[in-house]
Amino acid sequence: MMQRLTYVSRAGLSLDLDALIEKAALANQGFGVSGLLLQENGVILQVLEGPRTAIAPLFLRIASDQRHFDVTLIEARPIDELCFPRWGMTLLDGALKTRALWASHGEAGFDPFAMPARAISDFVRLASFELLNAAPATAAGR
Ligand SMILES: Cc1cc2nc3c(=O)[nH]c(=O)nc-3n(C[C@H](O)[C@H](O)[C@H](O)COP(=O)(O)O)c2cc1C
Question: Is any ligand 1 atom within 6 A of the Cβ of residue 46?
Fold first, then answer.
């Protein structure tokens, strides 16, 4: 059974997302997991998608990682279709993030800790749409 898990956390000072994402993407491909990661004002939002048997232990590992804190589960649910089928883990940044943030929030600041879970899933859907419609060179190059 496939599952999608979304959580938010706060980045620690030593967190180097660029270095982390390469290792994470490789590891995730190994167990059929894909997803999305973004950081905005020190807040991390990550979506993990894949077999439930892989997602649960992975989330436990990530949640106990000292490089971030206040790890807060937003949603974990069964899914029929993957939103992020193409990459082991994609760092959403630059124009894609800006467009998705604007589409879902306009000028309001992006604070997932203060947003209802529903608004977060809306944002994730928009971000997925942005990624899937981006030029392959831009999105897959991450
Ligand atoms: C914000 C954040 C996101 C992470 N995402 C992933 C991920 O998607 N896949 C992954 O294998 N490790 C991810 N990690 C790293 C794991 O926490 C852990 O370091 C890694 O799975 C190796 O685990 P090990 O040191 O117990 O072997 C992430 C860490 C942080 C802080």
Answer: yes
Q: Parse the chain into domains and list their residue ranges.
A: 2-141
CATH code for the part of the protein at 2-141: 3.30.70.100
Helix (H, G, I), strand (E, B) or coil at 104: helix
- The DSSP bridge pattern shows strands 90-91 and 34-40 to be parallel
Ligand 1 pocket: which of 8, 18, 20, 26 to mutate (most atoms <8 Å of CB)? 20
Give yes or no for a contact between 74 and 115, defined as CB atoms under 8 angstroms apart.
no
Q: What is the pLDDT of residues 44-92, one digit of tens each?
A: 999 999 999 999 999 999 999 999 999 999 999 999 988 887 778 888 8
